[in-house]
Write a structure and sequence with these properties.
Rossmann fold, 3 domains, D-amino Acid Aminotransferase, Chain A, domain 1, alpha+beta, four-stranded antiparallel sheet, about 300 residues, binds magnesium ion, single chain, Dna Ligase, domain 1, binds adenosine-5'-diphosphate, five-stranded antiparallel sheet
Amino acid sequence: MKRVAVLMGGWSSEREVSLVSGRDCAAALVSEGYDARTIDVTRDLDALLAALTPRPDVAFNALHGTGGEDGTIQGVLEFLRIPYTHSGVLASAVAMHKPSAKAVFAAAGLPLAEGRVVRRQELAAGDVMPRPFVVKPVAEGSSVGVRIVRPDDNSWGEEARHWAYEENLVERYVPGRELTVAVMGDRALGALEIRPNNTTLYDYTAKYAPGGSTHLMPAPIHRRAYEEALAISLNAHRALGCRGVSRADLRYDDTAGEPGRLYLLEVNTQPGMTPTSLVPDIARYAGIGFTELVRWMVENAACDS
Ligand SMILES: Nc1ncnc2c1ncn2[C@@H]1O[C@H](COP(=O)(O)OP(=O)(O)O)[C@@H](O)[C@H]1O
Ligand SMILES: [Mg+2]
């Protein structure tokens, strides 16, 4: 019986989502006969080391965001030589820093929205590209800090002068629809369309609150676009050197008809893992239940070297 430490919580803005993911994954593992325990990860490293003693066979990484998704906790687990789920140090760090990830994607020939890094001061000085555009902090997640600036937006100028983030990625706003693709090892499982229910700003609430959005699985798009979305996502996972499960976010511009054009936004190396999260939804459609998914992740846990 494998002993699994489920790492959850953390200190990022996604702490609460992570606590839910962690508890649900631990429960699924216990139901499969694993000796799974949860560890609420804080910045107290001594406490973490104590909780990892005696050493578990596998660490299930249910953390999101800063500390848990950016190579930090992965480095600790490499140091301890505890095999862990999801991506390793480098893939995690690169995926989390949006401009770095975009450089890797561009080198792999993947389709991206035009954009560049803009500092706070430059943001405050005036529009850096024609509207509509999107401003996002380079290293947040779950749409935290994402601001869509539309042509008729009169409050942006003032907001930009008090913008909380120093380094930002500003991108052309891609109209159309929102897709997300789950990748499991060497296979893209499927593409799901997320349709926000009543908001034009696709924010944190719309994404995670019950009833905030509708999940359409499989995404009701042209077959060629569907296949292309899977290929882009698998290539993105490989280009970053991801391990285990990842989830790619894409925009699908079908405003000029179908099949439309796809744009890769990002790869999430630590996607949400509650039974109603996107990856489990997609996996279920591919015939892989939540428990089977979590079991696969544990059995495929590894260290970088
Ligand atoms: N260039 C873009 N065009 C249109 N919408 C975008 C663009 N970039 C981001 N968005 C919207 O903001 C959301 C969050 O952006 P994303 O790049 O996935 O960062 P994160 O999820 O890490 O906050 C996307 O799911 C999408 O709805
Ligand atoms: Mg995203």
